[in-house]
Structure formats: structure tokens, C-alpha cells
Specification:
With about 725 residues, this protein is an alpha/beta fold.
């Protein structure tokens, strides 16, 4: 009995040293995890990429009515009073700008959490976005100045500099006449003679007054919206107090300020969870603190081993006990932390639906990443606790041999050949084997309405985000293109403007800028977005060469003569691919398979012309359609439009898009591009018009999944 008590007294120091070392090892493990997750800006941007955050910003948030309402009332620091401006954000703020903003936000968050700053400057967070918008404006200005004479180009540059110097507060509160009137009048006076300048200024004044009255009305609506937000409407900004937004109080953050507030004014008391977390994050990020814990842990482990040696206890078993104790403590700590962590949805419930969904997914990934890393740490400590006793002198050689064998086996695994044999590929046409035997007019295909009008190609009021070839990669098989010569003052101004006012403005436009040579793809004025016709046709040809089992249709709204169109197709090398429609517009079409075998894989229609090239017939000799001037989704019906109401024609064009204020509304596109919406309307029109659509034209093909709808219709659904 006395021997047992003596052994207990001898072992007690070892137990205390072991427990202390295990506790410090737990602290070191926790700080390492925090250092790799919470304190690392890259962990946040990784989670955002994993949640497809950048794509969802355009495809979900910008089409969410609640988020759009917040943007209109100033969620980005300045009210975006027009839906047209919101729909142009992918052009003004492309993905690189979003990535830069996300990286800046992650760095700002970690800076706050590590104690380097007491608050976060919203201006710093938004700077990549505003810089990108300014750069887009500079690009358009550069293009405009390239068409102007040198003196006018200098005056345009001076006008832009004067507008950039207008204080932000005046842009928010002043009317259009107040903000734009003086610099525009100075530009007009410097550019034209006194008489012409007086006439132009006389036309500008009423226009600016109308803009000013509209802005004032929208400002009243914004104030009302702001009051609504204060009373509980989900906001893009007000919930962004820590832990999602940090340092800036919700009320201050929701106000668009004319200048950046001081850090003291912007600071707020963080929620308790963030207050408890910040010291740990600061310690993990501090080399001094982290190094001190690392040295303390190493010292505690050495003391435990020394105590074991003095008392005759196995040092290997002592080391294993330290790792095992740390593993048990880490498991318990992890379970406790997981129980105390709030649900991601709880942290994001005040945000608009689309923003909350994205934020919840990002937080879920952050949680999962932290849980995985913590589990791996527990597993590593447990394995050490189990393996260390086996590493005594007599077992080392055996363990080393086993480790080498396992490593060799793992290294050889990728070299093991697969036993499976690839099945022979079936012949497919436009993505489906069953479509090869189907006539062209009986295959449903998705068309990109105004396919050339893309964010990627720099179009304002773009109808799609991605370039034409990416649209084809998505499954689009018809492209609706508008061909133009570069506009002059005469072609640019509306036909309803007549008399002396028209003459004055035509002369003014032609004096300032000149038309560019060549043929172009534009939607509206080419200065708002244009791409070279021949260059885009070459891109289509390269895509067809890379996809030899695909048939593509071009529907050309032709504002250039057929001879100019034929030259562009010849220069692009597409004459070899052109198909000739049946001579009889009501006659049968060949199957996709036969068109592919003959190499006639490009079908082209003109909206206005009718030949003389046999491959370039008028669309409406062959097709009927539904109306294309629709302002609301509920107005999408099956009424006949161009091409008549008869059933003899074999091609049916279903215009399935909404146009508001001459722009392709993203929110409406997200709604009407849903497969269920398209399929239901296609069958409704089939009953009324006698056939399924051949071509279904949509805006913003990247929203919804119109291509899936076409596949399901072709499958007989």
C-alpha cells in the first residue's frame, strides 16, 4: 500500500505537466486554426468563389426586386435611381472589380478582427467598384474622343473633368439643371458659333428641366424607401453591423454620406460574439503572441518529458498522453463551439432574399472549412497518441518499412490503368442523337435576342453578359443580330424631330463626331456599343469548325444592303457553310443530319431584305412570330405579328422577352427565362398556332435556363 502511494506521489508531477502541456497544445491548435481561417482574408474569398458569389451577384442579386429597391435608395453609397443603371452594373462593375471589392472587404474584416483597425471605411470597400465605373466611363469617352477632331476632344475631356469635380452631395441632392447646366453650356459655347450655341442651349434647357423634375420625384421615392428600410424592410447595408458588417453602425451605414466619416463616428460597439472573438484572432495574427504560445507549448512538453524521465515513466507514453489529452480537449471544445455558433441564416435574415441566400452559403462554407480543419487537427493528435507508443526503438525499423510500402502503393495508384472501355460515341446533332432525323423546322432552338449586345463587348444597356461564342457554348443555336453603318447626325436623331431644331442638332452632332468606316453590329447608336460585323462572323465560323455536329441560325435585322452583308460573310469565310432554305417557304426542310453531312450548317435570314443571295431570304416569307414589344411578363401572349397568322409556314418564332424603357430588364428576364415559364407558353402557343416554336428568343440567356426548356421540348415534354 505504501508503495502505491509512493508511486502516486512520483507520478503526480508527470500528470500535472502532461495536463498543462495538453492544454497549451490545445491553445496552439486553436490559434493555428484561427490563423488559417478567421484571420486569413483568402478564406473569405475562397468561400465566396465556392458559392459562385461573383456570378450570383449578377444573376440573382441584380434581378431581386428587394435588392434593386435598396440599390435605388443608395445601398452602394449613391442612389441608382434608374433600373437601366442597375442593369448596366455588369458593364460598369465587371467581375474583376467585384473580386477586388471582395478582397478589400476580406482584408478590412480581418484587419478589424485582428485589432489593427477599430472600424471599416465604407469608401474603402466601395473604391474598387467606383474606380471600375469611372474606368468604364473613360473607355466610352476615349472612344467618343477618337471620333472627334482634336480641339473638340480636348473640350470633351475638360467637360468630363468638370463633371468629376462636382461634389458627391450635389449629385445626390441637386437637380440635373443645377449639376449639368453650367458645364454643358460652357462646352456648347466653346464648340459652336454663338447663333448655333444659343439654339442648342435653348434645346438643352427644357431637357435638363425634365430630367431634374424626374430626379426630384425619384428622390422623394428614395426618401420614402429609406423610411421603409428604417422600419424593418430588408436592407443591403443596415444589417451589415458586425459580424457581417463591422465597425460602422447600421444607421450610419445606411446613410449615403457626402464624405467619409471619422473612425470614431463610424465605430460602434460590436456584438458580444465578435467582442469575444477579436482577442483570439488578434493573438493568432500577432507573430509575437503566436510565437510566445508556440514556445510555451514546446517548453511545457519538454518539462513533461523531463518529469517523466526523472520518475522513470516512459517518455514516449508521456508524449502520447499529451497528444491524446489535447485531442480530447479539442473534441470537447469543438463540440461546444459548434453548439454556440449561430446559424448562418440567423446572421443574414435581415438581408434581401438573394443577398441573404448568398451570404448564408458563404458562411456555411466558412463554417464547413473551419470544422474540417478542426477535425483534421483532432485526427492528427489522435493518430499521434496512438502511433507514438509504437515508435520505440525495437519498432522503428518495422514502422519505417511499413510507411515506405504504403507511400509506394499510394504513389502507384494513379498509374493503374482503367479496366473500363469507352463505349463508341453516338452520332448527335445539336446535342441530341434523336434530333439528327428531325427536320430543321421541327427542332426547338433558343435564340439570343440582340446577341451582339453584350457586357463582354462593352455595350451599354446590354442584352446579355457573355460574348456570342460563350452563348453558343451555353446551348444557344440562333443569334439575332443587328447590322448597321456607323450613325451620323441624320440617322441618329429620331424621325419625329423636324424643322430647324433637327437641322441644328444634325449639324451639331456631325460637327463633334464623325462616322467610322465599315459595317457594325450595334443596338441603337453604335457609340453606345458596337462590334465589327466581319470579326463576329469569323468568331461564329471558328465555333462552327470546332463543333462540326452543330447547326446555327442567324436572324439579321439588316440596316445595311445585302451586298454589304454578302461581303462580310465572304471575308469571314462563311460562304462554305451556308444553307439554302427551300424555294417554297411552305415546303419541307431537310433534317439536321442531312444538313450536317452536306456541310450546310449555317442558316441565315434577313428581317428586311429578301435576297438576292439564295441563302439570304426574308424571314417572314418563311416564318410567323409573336409580338416583340412587350413591357411586362404578363403580356407575353401568342398573338400573331409579322409573318401573318396562317399555319402554312413551317417556322414559328416565339419572342419571349420583356423590354422596358428600350432596355433588356434583367429582373424580367430572370422570371420569364425559367424553363417552366417557357414550356408552358410554348404549349399554349402550340395549341393556338398549330405548332411548337422553332426559335424561342430570349434576353439575358445567362439567367434562368432557357436552353434546358428547349431540350425538354425537343424530348417531347
Amino acid at each position: 500500500m505504501a508503495g502505491v502511494r509512493r508511486a502516486g506521489r512520483v507520478a503526480r508531477p508527470v500528470l500535472w505537466h502532461t495536463a498543462f502541456a495538453a492544454a497549451l497544445l490545445l491553445v496552439l491548435t486553436a490559434l493555428t486554426l484561427i490563423r488559417l481561417t478567421v484571420a486569413d482574408p483568402a478564406s473569405y474569398t475562397r468561400a465566396l468563389r465556392a458559392a459562385d458569389g461573383y456570378e450570383r451577384a449578377y444573376d440573382e442579386i441584380l434581378v431581386d426586386p428587394a435588392a434593386r429597391a435598396q440599390l435605388r435608395t443608395g445601398a452602394l453609397g449613391i442612389p441608382l435611381r434608374s433600373d437601366v443603371v442597375i442593369d448596366n452594373l455588369p458593364l460598369l462593375v465587371p467581375r474583376p472589380a467585384l473580386e477586388a471589392a471582395a478582397e478589400g472587404g476580406a482584408a478590412a474584416l480581418t484587419s478589424y478582427l485582428t485589432g489593427r483597425t477599430d472600424s471599416v471605411s465604407r469608401a474603402e470597400l466601395l473604391r474598387p467598384l467606383t474606380r471600375s465605373a469611372q474606368e468604364a466611363g473613360r473607355r466610352h469617352l476615349t472612344a467618343l474622343r477618337a471620333d472627334a477632331d482634336p480641339a473638340t476632344a480636348r473640350r470633351l475631356g475638360r467637360l468630363v473633368r468638370e463633371l468629376q469635380e462636382v461634389p458627391a452631395e450635389r449629385w445626390r441632392t441637386g437637380d440635373a439643371t443645377d449639376v449639368l447646366g453650367t458645364p454643358l453650356s460652357a462646352f456648347v459655347d466653346d464648340t459652336w458659333d454663338a447663333r448655333t450655341a444659343a439654339q442648342i442651349n435653348g434645346l438643352l434647357d427644357p431637357l435638363l428641366q425634365v430630367l431634374g423634375s424626374e430626379a426630384a420625384g425619384e428622390e422623394d421615392g428614395a426618401k420614402a424607401g429609406g423610411a421603409g428600410a428604417a422600419s424593418g424592410v430588408p436592407s443591403l447595408v443596415s444589417p451589415l453591423a458586425p459580424p457581417l458588417g463591422y465597425g460602422a453602425g447600421s444607421a450610419a451605414a445606411a446613410r449615403p454620406a457626402a464624405h467619409e466619416p471619422s473612425s470614431a463616428a463610424a465605430a460602434s460597439v460590436p456584438p458580444p460574439r465578435i467582442g469575444l472573438l477579436r482577442p483570439a484572432v488578434a493573438a493568432s495574427a500577432s507573430p509575437l503572441s503566436y510565437g510566445a504560445v508556440l514556445l510555451a507549448t514546446a517548453g511545457a512538453c519538454l518539462l513533461a518529458l523531463r518529469a517523466a524521465r526523472r520518475t522513470g515513466v516512459s517518455r514516449t507514453h508521456t508524449a502520447a498522453a499529451v497528444c491524446g489529452g489535447a485531442a480530447v480537449l479539442a473534441s470537447a471544445t469543438g463540440l461546444l463551439a459548434w453548439a454556440l455558433l449561430p446559424e448562418p441564416a440567423e446572421l443574414t435574415r435581415q438581408l434581401p432574399g438573394s443577398v441573404a441566400s448568398l451570404a448564408t452559403d458563404v458562411l456555411t462554407r466558412l463554417y464547413a472549412d473551419a470544422a474540417l480543419r478542426w477535425s483534421l487537427a483532432v485526427l492528427a493528435l489522435t493518430l499521434l497518441a496512438l502511433v507514438l507508443p509504437a515508435l520505440r526503438r525495437r519498432s522503428r525499423r518495422r514502422a519505417l518499412t511499413a510507411g515506405v510500402l504504403v507511400a509506394v502503393q499510394l504513389a502507384l495508384l494513379p498509374a493503374v490503368p482503367s479496366a473500363s472501355v469507352a463505349a463508341p460515341a453516338r452520332e448527335v446533332c445539336n446535342g441530341g442523337a434523336e434530333l439528327c432525323a428531325r427536320p430543321y423546322d421541327r427542332v426547338v432552338q433558343i435564340a439570343s435576342h440582340n446577341a451582339m449586345s453584350t457586357v463582354a463587348d462593352g455595350f451599354l444597356n446590354a442584352h446579355h453578359d457573355e460574348p456570342i461564342t460563350v452563348q453558343l457554348d451555353r446551348g444557344v443555336r440562333a443569334l439575332m443580330l443587328d447590322t448597321h453603318y456607323w450613325e451620323t447626325g441624320e440617322t441618329l436623331l429620331p424621325a419625329g424631330l423636324r424643322g430647324r431644331a433637327r437641322e441644328t442638332l444634325v449639324r451639331a452632332v456631325d460637327d463633334v463626331v464623325s462616322a467610322r468606316r465599315g459595317t457594325w453590329l450595334c443596338h441603337g447608336p453604335c457609340r453606345l456599343g458596337a462590334s465589327d460585323l466581319t470579326g463576329q462572323l469569323r468568331a461564329v465560323g471558328r465555333w462552327l469548325d470546332a463543333h462540326p455536329r452543330e447547326v446555327v441560325t442567324l436572324i439579321v435585322q439588316d440596316d445595311i444592303p445585302p451586298a454589304a452583308t454578302e461581303r462580310a460573310f465572304r471575308r469571314a469565310g462563311l460562304l462554305r457553310l451556308l444553307a439554302r432554305p427551300p424555294a417554297d417557304p411552305t415546303g419541307p426542310w431537310p433534317t439536321l443530319g442531312s444538313m450536317i453531312r452536306r456541310g450546310q450548317r449555317l442558316v441565315v435570314f434577313a428581317e428586311y431584305s429578301d435576297g438576292p443571295m439564295l441563302w439570304y431570304p426574308n424571314l417572314y416569307r418563311y416564318a410567323t412570330e409573336t409580338p416583340y414589344t412587350v413591357g411586362e411578363p404578363a403580356q407575353l401572349d401568342c398573338a400573331p405579328n409579322r409573318g401573318g397568322a396562317g399555319r402554312a409556314k413551317r417556322i414559328f418564332l416565339l419572342n419571349h422577352f420583356v423590354t422596358r424603357d428600350r432596355a433588356a430588364d434583367r429582373a424580367a428576364a430572370a422570371q420569364v427565362n425559367r424553363p417552366e415559364e417557357i414550356i408552358a407558353r410554348a404549349h399554349r402557343c402550340e395549341r393556338l398556332r398549330g405548332r411548337l416554336p422553332t426559335v424561342i428568343a430570349v434576353n439575358h440567356v445567362q439567367l434562368g435556363d432557357a436552353v434546358q426548356a428547349a431540350r425538354r421540348l425537343n424530348a417531347g415534354e
